[in-house]
């Protein structure tokens, strides 16, 4: 950080504000449009503040276009994904960090390598596996993999666990704990910052996932929010105000989570990006 | 570290299953499938290089590559430069920098589908905000997403990608900049180096590893873009996307899951992987010339 003259500071403020307006205006426009009537949407020049204010759009989207259901579906998947990811990633990271065994190094290297594996190559065989198991058009393909651990999460927690003092483990053994108890009672509580960061990333990934539900789900009653929104856009003559109401519904939870958990976001980027 | 190996195997078992089932098997299987005709229902039929030969003769494949290349060419440099500029400005001692950081990061967390619908609305030919602004400046309205010029459509999507991605790259670069020691800048100032010299000779070299990482990751992301295009084109499936606006991942999705041509789709997936790998290695090659470590 350096100090600048008032003039150059003003220039920086003006530029930053201009940029911020360009970043934020679309959100304002989404919200504004979501309260418009069909006539209001197509009015030129555009109305900045909707008149009349039609909040019934949200009722229509929530009840008639089934977004209530989609929201519930998305929530179920996100909650289970979160549980699965936190559980399995802590387990695997703990295993890699605390025990010496023959395949430890190879597993660790493969884990790092999978960070680079493009998903499109494994997509078709994965689909085939779920089809063979008879689980197409269910949530299993969207949920079960998170219980098997993901490279990103394992890496993040592994990095964090390694930064904890090794004597901690020895002390717990002397106290008569077995490894599972040590993980649950000592390491998981200590890893809270890393787990919080992982939760935020998992939530975003799962909530925003489009390709998975698109491939695996057919019944409209099983659709998640991204799919419901795409369906609304492409299959009906839904008006723009309804689409924007749907977009607001899908965006609000992530923005709230982001506002609450900004610190974890930045920490997560720091854990993985900088130390990696 | 404990010696009892079985605990290690026990704890890592979920991921070992994951590796075998969803990584190792798929890699070999999809390589095999790329040499077969397979519709998912009947047994795969070996056809040798057929899919590969056809792939290289297929116009839509080359069109999709051209598009994604153009997309990356617009998106990656623009996002990197803007993110660097914003990060540099936010790194000055400013009041309210937290609020700015918050706003610039908002698009990153917004679901792609919502962002895409929103921008499709802003780009709308008749009632969109962008054309309205242009018109009030006396410019004729433009068919951004429905243009007969492929580059205009792809470019429009690339701009939305920049909007969505600046925040992410900016945070990474800001983290890099905050590692630049204050004393170094201060002593440079005493030595008479102006702000521009400090930026180019000190800040940029020290942040260059982060810039490199950001460019590498966004190039990979560009080649894998899927939601962005699906959402911006407003299609539930890739079947209705016009050929001139195709990108590789939409093509793979269409061939595999709409036309159930698993062989060609697998060949294409592998081709895309090889291309991404080539670009990554290409960037690594040039890394030495401008990225400074230590």
Automatic annotation (TrEMBL), chain A:
Record family assignment: Belongs to the binding-protein-dependent transport system permease family.
Subcellular location: Cell membrane
ABC transmembrane type-1 domain: residues covered: 71-261
Domain of life: Bacteria
Gene Ontology biological-process annotations: transmembrane transport
Identification of the protein by name: Carbohydrate ABC transporter permease
Membrane topology: Multi-pass membrane protein
Pfam families tied to this protein: BPD_transp_1
InterPro entries with a match to the protein in the record: MetI-like, MetI-like_sf
Keywords, sorted A to Z: Cell membrane, Membrane, Transmembrane, Transmembrane helix, Transport
Transmembrane annotation, as ranges: 12-31, 76-99, 106-130, 142-161, 182-204, 241-261
Gene Ontology CC terms: plasma membrane
Automatic annotation (TrEMBL), chain B:
InterPro entries xref list: ABC_transporter_permease (IPR051393), MetI-like (IPR000515), MetI-like_sf (IPR035906)
Record family assignment: Belongs to the binding-protein-dependent transport system permease family.
Pfam families reported for this sequence: BPD_transp_1
UniProt GO cellular component terms: plasma membrane
Keyword annotations: Cell membrane, Membrane, Transmembrane, Transmembrane helix, Transport
Gene3D superfamilies: MetI-like
ABC transmembrane type-1 domain boundaries: 65-283
Coiled coil start-end: none
PANTHER family: ABC TRANSPORTER PERMEASE PROTEIN, INNER MEMBRANE ABC TRANSPORTER PERMEASE PROTEIN YCJO
Bilayer-spanning residue ranges: 7-33, 68-90, 102-122, 149-167, 202-226, 267-286
Main location class: membrane
Record lineage: Bacteria, Bacillati, Bacillota, Bacilli, Bacillales
Name this protein carries in UniProt: Sugar ABC transporter permease
Cellular localization per UniProt: Cell membrane
Membrane topology: Multi-pass membrane protein
GO BP field: transmembrane transport
